[in-house]
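Exam review. A common question shows you a sequence with its structure tokens and asks you to describe the fold in words. Practice with the pair below. Do the first one on your own.
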Amino acid sequence: MSLELLYASRAAQPDGIAVVHRDDRISHRELVELVELVAAGLAGRGIAPGDAVALLLPNNLEFVLCFHAVSALGAVLVPLNPQFKQEELEFCFRRCEVKAVITDDRCAGVCERISSSMDWPVDVITTRPAHPHMVTLEGLMSEHGAAPLAPRPADDVFVYQFSSGSTGRPKRVARTHANVRAEARTYATSMGITSADGVFCVVPLFHTYGMGCCLLSTAQTGATLVMLEDPNPFLLKRHRALDLLEQEQPTIFPGVPFSFRVLAEAPRDADLSSIRLCFSAGTALPRSTFDAFLDRFGIPVRQLYGCTEAGTLTANLDGDPVDTFASVGKPVSGVGVRILDDLGEPVPTGSIGELAVSSPALTAGYLDTAELTAEAFRDGEFITGDLGMVDDEGRVFLTGRKKLLIDVGGYKVDPIEVEDVVLSHPGVDEAVVVGVAGDNPGEELVKAVVVVTDNSDSREIIRFCRERLANYKVPHVVEFREEIPKSPMGKVLRKYLI
């Protein structure tokens, strides 16, 4: 799907700039050739349609090339967080039955260890070799010539992603080429992005937000993708971000509340007048952050709402972004939003209920979990677990979550997954994980409340979790109790643990 769009951009503006990363300025013609070379190299390693290929890379040019090349072959993309630890990666590799993983020298060792433990061969391909015997992406690209690739069937699976959309281990979501193409169209039809735009990318490309608003939007429209190299930790990269914004003059800036707050508080000035649309997603945008960015740069930050299961769903494109700052906007083209009560019936306009969404970009359900699919997907709608309302103008407002997810810097953390890890510690008898307010407005921290059977202290439990969980999932606070408060029916009373 995505390569067809790249072919169209090459035909329309072959010498136009498609990607800016570090010192690289890749034209649409060059991008297509590089993608075709990667695809040919992967095919030469035996990657075939339907094979799952994991991408374990930071935001870089190689991620962009591999994203388009894997999908062009008809293989299934499995974009994963480079912060994941071995246990998390192995879970994803096994669940998707990955045949290859493309990574860098920092993650190559753990991928090789996982590969050696699998019941089937897993090819580990690196952007930079961790040792002399590794297969490299550059080596693959030199083995075969570039050749055009045929379009993929609409119903073929494009990507596997993992959602914390309900309790338990992350759920595998499959979205097809048709799903992804439907989302890609919205960036042109609903948001008005064109080939004259530049999209400034500071959000992770492995995430649905980055995949949609950065990779799919630029592929669909021919806009330029301007990537901030290694954007984490963003606080340390904010001066580089401001330099890029001034030098490259992008017009679209998808971010998270933290990135906008950090830039608003930067000790240096910058001219960001090229930006016409700033979008914030991942977690609610605090009014203080909205005001600070508007006061500093004269640009309103508009909220956007989406999910792993469907990509972008709504975007605030209101003519008055100041008065409507709290809204995540109206549904983008093809998306339907209904607000339901606890019985699944629509509530009156202006009343709060649970959001149910429909979209041509929506997955058919969770793989391997029929029970959860039946619970969350009904009659073509996805029951999101988010609470909100719709006003008389059709604007959507989010008011909270029905599910237990914790927002940590824009990442969704499932407390049940963290609880599973804490409970596997030999000294922990009971554990409950909750989200608590951080130091800054709208920020949450992960807190573990535990009952122990030995002398384990908080440092030991945090160390244990850090070895098994991505850093953003690790409890920031560990509280010890004699017992966990429960109702007469045995239900954990989480409200007394916050």
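Now try the second one, then compare your answer with the model answer below.
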Amino acid sequence: MSVLAIVYGFTAVLLATYGLNSLIIVLLYLRHRSFDGLRTPREHQPPPPLTNAPPATVQLPVYNELHVVERLIDAVTRLDYPHDKLQIQVLDDSTDETTALAQARVDYYRKRGIDIVLIHRPERTGFKAGALQRGTETATGEFIAIFDADFVPDPDFLRRIIPHFQGRPRLGLVQTRWGHINADYSPLTRAQALALDGHFVVEQTARQRSGLFMNFNGSSGVWRKSCIEEAGGWQGDTLSEDLDLSYRAQLGGWQLLYLPEVVSPAEIPPQINAFKRQQFRWAKGSIQCLLKHWSTLLRTPRPTFVRLQGLIHLSNYLIHPLMLILLLLTLPLLLGQGVTRLPLLYLGLGSLGPPLLFALSQWDAYLDWRRRLAYFPFLVLLGTGIALNNALAVGEALTRRPNLFQRTPKFGLEDRADRWAESHYALPLNWMTLGEALLSLYSLIAVIVALATGNYYAVPFLLLYLGGFGYVAALGLRTRMGRIGGFVPPIRKSRQSVVLTKEPNRG
């Protein structure tokens, strides 16, 4: 057997392992969910309402968010929590008009007796982690809630979350589920909503209730301040400061709780390049956390299964370079008649895990699950076509290239009539689109060779790459040609309420 065939087989088995682990997560979820889906089991039922609310701080890290910063501040000031116990910090690293807009809203609410302050940093040292650490140093709350700029929390958010800390001194974090303001904006946003639901409905629930390592998702969560401090504070040496702190806290003996029944709506990136930028940051940051914590994770006195799941959790983005390697090896092996059926069989079995995970997330979370699941083919194409982008991110992490925090632009989209393409936040076409187009062409050549050589079993696998890279490249080119969007709405004026349609929950 040739060296290429050995590498191919090893890569396929690794990919199948990650896929089979999705099946394990599905089984854990089915074991620990209650009979009616997202409702928490009896032992996780909410404690009695607060009789004496502890001091709480809400932190709003923002960086150039002129389309959504007012909506965010307006929503947070409507939190139904005693104003004498609530502090709001707008942690602003902006370099554009966002600062003036945010300051105006802060001044407006301060005159009305709300304890809200804007903390502006002229330099982004440590990026988001640096801003959070700066705010934590002056936070007066015993508990700290964090919301990114595109979130719109419900008024009862703190009253639903804070009681869970009562009587649990080692509970360091309560994470809640992300909802979607603009899921039905386009097939692209629908596909992303499916991916997010798979993580938040199934994976996070399964991990937390099975006693596995889970993570803070960067927003819509509440930390105990003493947990942050004991775990070493916010650190900016990775691009996933949320994942990093989560593992440091858990390795230090703190507990994390996940509440899927509490949902905070957020905006999904409507532009493919914005989604790719977000994925690049998450992929690089995750692998940086793997490099930072793997040795400590292996030594922690936890069951072997828990430690193994932690490693899989931190290394999950390795899937994308593995996918790329598999594609690039297929064509020379086809030409040399070296592809075997066995690795593809294992890969096929492993590939059953993710579809089941996503299907289960829709079934349990929504009454209209059939309509939502109809967009699953777009998620398959998106998940394949993003492989080049994420493989480069993983490469940067493994080679320890310096960090550059590139924000995911938000446009304040709330319905299909809103537009974003002419906003100066819209990202331009970049060279990666050409790379994705070339990989699509490479896949087409491999399909032709597979048909010509009688390797028909490889054709479906190659068509997936052809469609995935072609789809992502086409979205990038379509944006460039101006076929999506039109005008972006003007900066939203101050308003006292944001009306959002609640997504129908099965529970």
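Model answer, second protein: The beta strands are 56-62, 86-92, 116-120, 143-146, 171-180, 221-224, 255-266. The CA atoms of residues 341 and 352 lie 17 Å apart. Full marks require stating both points clearly.
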